[in-house]
Design a protein that fits this description.
By secondary structure, this protein is α/β, with parallel strands linked by helices. The longest helix has 25 residues, at 3-27. Helix 2 crosses helix 3 (65-77), helix 3 (65-77) packs parallel to helix 4 (95-101) and helix 6 crosses helix 7 (178-195). The protein contains 9 helices and 9 strands. Belongs to the pyridoxal phosphate-binding protein YggS/PROSC family.
């Protein structure tokens, strides 16, 4: 595919996705601009990410530092500075790298990781927006803090100088009704808001379940396939 035809395709995908998000908002009785689209560019080349930014898509997401960091450097070299969202499971030893380019980390799920990100952001002279990833079914192998431990983690992040608590994130557990998953996440959001009333963001919804997430109050949806097309292999 030529660069130009790929760009046209991405533009069409973006338009269609934005319209679908706005329609889901209206269905839910919400303002059509109350949900932020994060285009998840994982497994797709930096040229696609650059094209999306040039088409006006400001928020991009990635789930692996090994891929995200060079992509962020590549775009910066083109003079493009999207808002980068790190959405994947994160090892503490990657905190320093992620804090060098990410604006948001959606997957803060333990105190040791929060401390590492805070120290790294301070060292880089940057601030990070943090979402607490919640394990809705208690299977922490897929990332996320247990619901029972959410409040303690929120309190620790609220005290950190360089990471700012902004809300919660979850992935709907395999085999769960999305509506049930996102209703539980909305309860988790209320818990976090008791610690910090300003932490109102809810990152929920992927290409297969974003309408249910918007109906349950999501403020950010993380869409890969809807915007970029099918991935050749699962990342
Ligand atoms: C890949 C990924 C997405 C996007 O998934 P799609 O099904 O392509 O929309 C969203 N969130 C996370 C955490 C991901 O890893």
């Amino acid at each position: 595919m030529t660069t130009q035809s790929r760009r046209v395709q991405l533009q069409e995908n973006l338009n269609r996705t934005r319209e679908a998000i706005a329609a889901a908002c209206v269905d839910a009785g919400r303002s059509p601009d109350s949900v932020r689209l994060i285009a998840v560019t994982k497994t797709f080349p930096a040229s696609d990410a650059a094209a999306l930014v040039e088409l006006g898509q400001t928020d991009l997401g990635e789930n692996r530092d090994q891929e995200a960091h060079p992509k962020a450097v590549d775009l910066a070299a083109r003079g493009l500075e999207p808002v980068w969202h790190f959405v994947g499971q994160l090892q503490r030893n990657k905190a320093r790298s992620v804090a060098s380019y990410a604006d948001w980390v959606h997957s803060v799920d333990r105190i040791t990781l929060a401390s590492a990100l805070d120290a790294a952001a301070t060292a880089h002279g940057r601030n990070l927006n943090a979402l607490i990833q919640v394990s809705l079914d208690g299977d922490v192998s897929r990332g996320g803090v247990l619901v029972a431990d959410l409040e303690g983690l929120a309190e620790r992040i609220a005290d950190a100088p360089s990471i700012h608590l902004k809300g919660v994130m979850a992935v709907a557990p395999i085999g769960w009704e999305p509506a049930k998953a996102f209703a539980l996440l909305a309860e988790c959001s209320e818990t976090v808001k008791r610690t910090d009333p300003g932490a109102v963001e809810i990152s929920a919804g992927m290409s297969g379940d974003y309408q249910a997430a918007i109906a349950a109050g999501a403020t950010m949806v993380r869409l890969g396939r809807n915007v970029l097309g099918e991935r050749e292999s699962m990342a």
